[in-house]
Protein: Cytidylate kinase
Amino acid sequence: MVVLTVAIDGPAAAGKGTIAKALARELGLRHLDTGSLYRAVALRVLGGEDAVAVARGLGPDDLADPRLRQPEVAQEASRVAAIPEVRAALLDFQKAFARAEGGAVLDGRDIGTVVCPEAEVKLFVTASAEARAARRHAEQVAAGQESSLERTLAEIRARDARDEGRDHAPLRAAGDAVVIDTSGLGIDEAVARALGVARARLGR
Ligand code: CDP
Ligand code: CDP
Structure:
């Protein structure tokens, strides 16, 4: 069985999800947005439940909740993501998804370092905090949510600091990851670069 895994990591709103979806489509692979797992745990923690218990019993319905994209859920996600038992409870599902037949693209913070250290393709997608805040702010405005650029930038910085500073599976580029800085890139250009790296590595 031939299984190809593409690991995409990077900070909030760097363009990981956009690139991951495009690569999955172009290469015929399945896609998992691993941030949605941490967001799903966070949403139920905000509702008063225990983080570890929720992570151990997470189901498909939890991942379909439209409230997962709310800014307060993102902040709480980076708090629950620092709990080792939460990370451990979510690991098997991610590993199984990555290695199932057909191969997959996974995007998150620790895919190339912890979840799929053996991935055939590893990308670290990043951009300046200002560029990322502008994108997330524009998304929130387009979704009709109340948003301020200043607050969004502060939220992104707070989340970066938690994700980079935690003891377990901190956000960092794997030694063998190719770094793509999307600060000055449009979506098409960023996707084309990522696809070029993936095709070169996979030879297809
Ligand atoms: O998955 P991640 O949080 O890293 O980012 P995303 O959801 O793929 O992208 C965040 C926002 O930035 C989306 O609205 C994208 O359309 C936009 N984007 C962009 O403006 N330029 C890029 N090169 C990549 C994404
Ligand atoms: O879309 P965005 O990049 O804003 O965030 P996300 O990918 O949905 O991730 C939300 C939070 O989950 C992150 O800030 C991390 O704290 C955590 N996360 C993680 O620790 N490990 C992953 N593989 C994915 C997300």
Q: What stands out?
A: Residues 5-199 form a domain with the Rossmann fold fold (CATH 3.40.50.300).
